[in-house]
Amino acid sequence: MEFSYMTRQENIKRLKDEGLDLLVIGGGITGAGVAVQAVASGIKTGLIEMQDFAEGTSSRSTKLVHGGLRYLKTFDVEVVSDTVKERAVVQGIAPHIPRPFPMLLPIYDDPSSTFNMFSLKVAMDLYDRLAGVDGTKYANYTIDREEVVQREPNINQENLLGAGVYLDYVNNDSRLVIENIKEANDLGGIIANRVKAVSAIYDSDGIINGVIAEDGLTKEKFEIRAKLVINTTGPWVDKAFELDENKSKIPVMRPTKGIHLVVDEKRLSIPQPTYFDSGMGDGRMIFVVPREGKTYFGTTDTDYHGDYRHPRVEREDVDYLLKALNKHFPKAGLSLNDIEASWAGLRPLIAGNSSSDYNGGGANTGKVSEESFTYLIETVDSFNENKATREDVEQAISQLKTARMETNLKPSQVSRGSSLDVGADRLLTLSGGKITDYRKMAAGALKLIRKMLKDYFNVDSKQIDSKKLQVSGGHFDATNVEDTIEFYKTITMEKGIPEKRALDLANRFGSNTPRVISYAKKLKAGNSTLDLAERLSLYYSIQEEMTLTPVDYLLRRTNHILFHADKINNISEAIVGEMAKILEWSDEQKEKMSEQLDQVISETELNYLKESKQKQLIG
């Protein structure tokens, strides 16, 4: 279904002219999840995003839908249980996006290690039971030191004991957002990117009933009226737009910054995602993930007070990650000049909440008493032998006695838990959480939204099972992903597209692949240097994914800037040229878009840091 620049213009007109039941402010994963469920429930819904969809936090994650094995170290069984179950739900509603890719967790003889071989096996067994994968091909297992070295010859072998292997999922965060957005559009949502909520509108009783919005392209300001407004702006929830603080109930956010760096697999080659202690004595763990011929790693976790719209990778961030990587892969000898791409993002953490960090950081760093720990292990062993129930395990957890608790939380210790609040002005605010939880967070919000619409406005809506609400591109059997993708690859190859490129399209677009390749008959023959696969992808993205700029396409609709930095210069000019023709840009617009793209690529490549270092060496 069309979702283009023209759709955006039509939707802005509709937002001006038509009253809504619900206005969603924020087009990241949280807002996208709320919108698709609301529209499916029969609620007249609009969504506005001040940037591009997923441009903020939701395109800057570690790009995993992970189950949080580390939470079991701090005995957050409920968190793990919820996370792994929700991960399976996300895989079911977007089967073309999250993909299983077992994680390797090496163990060292080091007193500061998060796990030893014994505690890791206990944790993995419980993890598998909670995830429902015990006895399947994805069940965990341990390997000895020799096999770890065989798998990863470059890994640090000093004091290496072995490793555990357990199920985790790789993800394409920005694709997950746009597929939810597209499904909401297909179902009747009124959606526009680059529209900012500037201030709230209140009725005579002080109840919010809309916003003043600004079109980011034309700078026109206009009113949007809605019975209910929900703020899903992530790190911006307490800064999103002008509010009456006496009426609005919004959690205070404490965002932290995380960065990731990308190198070519020739510089650091690993066979599977790997997860290990940072070795910096800070309680953090580092992910290293192979992807599309590259290897990326992260993340840092530092308090952030800068520009929310433009967090940047700083030299101390790079130094931290390179030190951690080179310690664990000493033969790699990575340096700043090896970094081909990078990204920095903010985590929407809620201040003052001391429960476990949903991103895997240390939560309760207090010491557990030996007696309590022994009792818990015995109960878990009995649980794994079917001699104890989950309730027994939870009771053992509740009886844990800690010797101390830190009163000053580090950034990695702030909760990743979510919050749903309603102010005296009826503004709803859904904040916190993480990508894995987005569907569940939205379902909780929808339950309240439906009740408020009925109670205050006598508006009926239908209850849906959001666990079965598949998103755009995901309309196929989630238990038969490999065969389905193979089919879409085959029909794409029939258009004369090489196998590897056909597979790329099938993986990216899922059940929308036939629509993508149908554009072949609409493409005009010309002297484009782009291959057919890229032209089809670009044309579809412009017409059906509200792609407005080259950066939208190359960074968020695809991951070309991040994982194909060595090829980006060969296609960037052609991408700008094709978009200029399709969107009928003036020469001035085309030049502006080209400059914007060059600036983003340069920043992603960290040229500002590399040039600074070069100047220091010369000086």
UniProtKB/TrEMBL annotation:
<dbReference type="InterPro" id="IPR000447">
    <property type="entry name" value="G3P_DH_FAD-dep"/>
</dbReference>
<protein>
    <recommendedName>
        <fullName>Alpha-glycerophosphate oxidase</fullName>
        <ecNumber>1.1.3.21</ecNumber>
    </recommendedName>
</protein>
<keyword id="KW-0274">FAD</keyword>
<comment type="similarity">
    <text>Belongs to the FAD-dependent glycerol-3-phosphate dehydrogenase family.</text>
</comment>
<keyword id="KW-0812">Transmembrane</keyword>
<keyword id="KW-1133">Transmembrane helix</keyword>
<dbReference type="GO" id="GO:0046168">
    <property type="term" value="P:glycerol-3-phosphate catabolic process"/>
</dbReference>
<feature type="transmembrane region" description="Helical">
    <location>
        <begin position="20"/>
        <end position="40"/>
    </location>
</feature>
<dbReference type="GO" id="GO:0004369">
    <property type="term" value="F:glycerol-3-phosphate oxidase activity"/>
</dbReference>
<feature type="domain" description="Alpha-glycerophosphate oxidase C-terminal">
    <location>
        <begin position="466"/>
        <end position="590"/>
    </location>
</feature>
<dbReference type="InterPro" id="IPR006076">
    <property type="entry name" value="FAD-dep_OxRdtase"/>
</dbReference>
<dbReference type="InterPro" id="IPR031656">
    <property type="entry name" value="DAO_C"/>
</dbReference>
<keyword id="KW-0319">Glycerol metabolism</keyword>
<dbReference type="GO" id="GO:0006071">
    <property type="term" value="P:glycerol metabolic process"/>
</dbReference>
<keyword id="KW-0285">Flavoprotein</keyword>
<keyword id="KW-0472">Membrane</keyword>
<dbReference type="Pfam" id="PF16901">
    <property type="entry name" value="DAO_C"/>
</dbReference>
<dbReference type="InterPro" id="IPR036188">
    <property type="entry name" value="FAD/NAD-bd_sf"/>
</dbReference>
<feature type="domain" description="FAD dependent oxidoreductase">
    <location>
        <begin position="21"/>
        <end position="349"/>
    </location>
</feature>
<dbReference type="GO" id="GO:0004368">
    <property type="term" value="F:glycerol-3-phosphate dehydrogenase (quinone) activity"/>
</dbReference>
<dbReference type="Pfam" id="PF01266">
    <property type="entry name" value="DAO"/>
</dbReference>
<keyword id="KW-0560">Oxidoreductase</keyword>
<dbReference type="InterPro" id="IPR038299">
    <property type="entry name" value="DAO_C_sf"/>
</dbReference>
